[in-house]
Amino acid sequence: MPGVVWIAIAVLGALALVLAAGISRLRTLSRRVGSFNCAARATGNPEGSWTPGIAQYAVGRIEWWRCWSLSPRPARTWYRERLVVTSRTPLDPDERGQGDHYLVQCRYDGLDFELDLAAGDYFGLASWLEAAPPGRQDLVL
After folding, report:
1. CA distances for 14 relative to 5, 10, 26, 136, angstroms
2. Which Pfam families does this one have (predicted)?
């Protein structure tokens, strides 16, 4: 019986460490300069589930991390010259339980996806895309 207790304590300790690492990762990502909350999903399934994440502006790219992951690397990286916003639609506050959000449809290397962004985060994204080097006026609709 004492062996079972030690195993249970070890398992609980390991779970506590994983939880602490996950919380620390989220705090670190969300406090970085240029980071913002950004949920994503594949286009074409309006009932599809959103994957919550944190995005961060980097030099010429946006890096996106899933919220519920322990990976030290971003799940997605979108380079400015290959990312195009094809449309944006204000979301009904009752639909997502949040006010002042946009459904932003994007295309990256021929793949379509959607982002759920707060209004300020969308305007930041649009400004970042428009600030691209000369000759790239097609990035924002």
Report:
1. 14, 6, 19, 49
2. DUF2550
Q: CA 129, CA 81: separation in Å to the nearest integer?
A: 8
Query: Which numeric CATH code is attached to 32-130?
Result: 2.30.29.30
To 5 degrees, how large is the angle CA 125–CA 129–CA 134?
Answer: 160
Residue 117, number of CB atoms within 10 A of its CB? 24
pTM (2 d.p.): 0.76
List of residues 6+ apart from 43 with CB closer than 8 A:
105, 112, 113, 114
Q: In this predicted model, what pLDDT tens digit does every residue of 69-97 receive, in sequence order?
A: 878 899 999 999 999 999 999 887 765 55
Judge contact between 128 and 136, C-beta under 8 A. Answer: no
The structure tokens listed for 41 are 């999903």
Residue 21: what pLDDT? 77
What span, in angstroms and rounded, lies between the C-alpha atoms of 109 and 132? 17
Asked if 134 and 78 touch (Cβ cutoff 8 Å), the reply is no
